[in-house]
Amino acid sequence: MKKIVKNIFIIVLLFSKQLPAQEIISIGKSEVLSKISENNLSLKISKEEFNAAKADYKQTNAIFLPNITASHTGISTTNPLMAFGSKLNQAILTQNDFNPALLNNPAQTQNFATIIKVEQPIINLDGFYQRKAAKSKMDAMSLQSKRTKDYLTFEVEKAYMQLQLAYKGEQVLEKALQTANENQKLAENSFKQGLLQRADVLNVEVRVTEIKNQLQTAKSNVQNASNYLSFLMNDDSFVIYKPTDSLTVSNFSMDNKTISENRSDIKAMQLSTKAYEAINKADKMSFLPRLNAFGSYEMYDNTVFQGNASGYLIGAQLSWDIFKGSKRFGKAQKSKAEFEKSKLAYNQYVSQSNLEFNKVQRQLIDAKNKLELTALAVQQSKESLRIRKNRFKEGLEKTSDLLQVETQYLQKQLEYYQTVFEYNYTQKYLEFLTKE
């Protein structure tokens, strides 16, 4: 049994040595932005949505361009009317064909017709407004694509700062673990000298274990932040990224910052409202008549793919759908309601944007004040820890008091970097909200 366990241990050890360590790659923010602009799936989806809207707009060219069709039809008939008409189209009628007996009982007649038809719209007022609506929709999708790119830029800023924050947390906890290990050695020496009780040493050991657990969580946060960057860049390798620059306080000017109607998503909603308005007008114009021209060139023969006889036909048609069972009335009412709804949605969206802007402005002021206070708290807790540690070395301080101050210093450091992240994030969010 011992031999089996030993063999298993050796196999596991050899296998673990063959496993590659997870790769750590340094990456800058500009590199992340470049990869996202090339590979991000949300951007690609947004581009295809624009292409679809562009294709819808191209379809409306039909109100200007002709519709051309060509056909070749072959028949064989003994129907009196069809037989006589076929010979007439083929220009092969003779005097004998007017014989009543032949007219009533014609022989089998073949006819092959090649016809080219052209239909040209002239006045279709509903089509003009449908084209206008499709154009507004296409332009709105273009602006939405731009806003999607702006949002992803903001999301990169956030994700990159989260990665920086995760590394800061890991660095703080590594230093805290180093300090805790030193305190543990100091406590063990004091215990050997009879200056401390065993319970004090156990408290220090518990503190070391707590910091190790926190450090493991911090390492997981680094992996999570790296994986999210990989997701944004559409990279399935999921390596561990390391930022080329550290988390520091950034500066942002709030001068003349407001929500602009020229912001791409707001302009997109304006164009969307125009599209609904044009659709409503198109539904109203469907009550008016349409004018279309048409023409055809026809070739006939009794042999396939021949055309010894030919002729043309040209004309114009004024058509008017007077009543279609109240269907058009309901359609016009629906498009009117959708138009009114889009106007209300636009006003609501602008109002929500201004509400969010005012809220984030206050958050920025709060974050700035909190940043100053947490920076001061770090300095104070650091000095307090230095004093308590020196007193502990001299046997003048309780172990519990030292651990409490040490914990406080660690918390204040982590709180400070969290506040730096919040302050920088709020600035970037304000920049995103006010970007034109």
Description:
With 436 residues, this protein is of the alpha+beta class. Helices cover 67% and strands 13% of the residues. It is built from 10 helices and 6 strands. The strands form 2 sheets. The chain has a 4-stranded antiparallel beta sheet with strand order 2-3-5-6. It has a two-stranded parallel ribbon with strand order 1-4. Helix 3 (41-59) runs antiparallel to helix 6 (125-192), helix 6 (125-192) runs antiparallel to helix 8 and helix 9 runs antiparallel to helix 10 (399-433). It is elongated and about 140 Å long. The two termini are 73 Å apart. The relative contact order is 0.13.
Can you give me a brief rundown of this structure?
Helices cover 67% and strands 13% of the residues.
Radius of gyration based on Cα positions: 40 Å
Outline, from the CA principal axes?
elongated
Give the strand order of the largest sheet, numbering strands 1, 2, ... along the chain.
Answer: 2-3-5-6
How many extended strands? 6
- Give the topology string: H per helix, E per strand: HEHHEHHEHHEHEEHH
Total number of helices = 10
Stretches with pLDDT under 50, minimum 5 residues:
1-20
Alpha-carbon distance between the two ends: 73 Å
Give the % helix. 55-70%
Average predicted confidence as pLDDT: 88
Structural class: alpha+beta
Largest sheet features: 4 strands, antiparallel
- Strand percentage, roughly? 5-15%
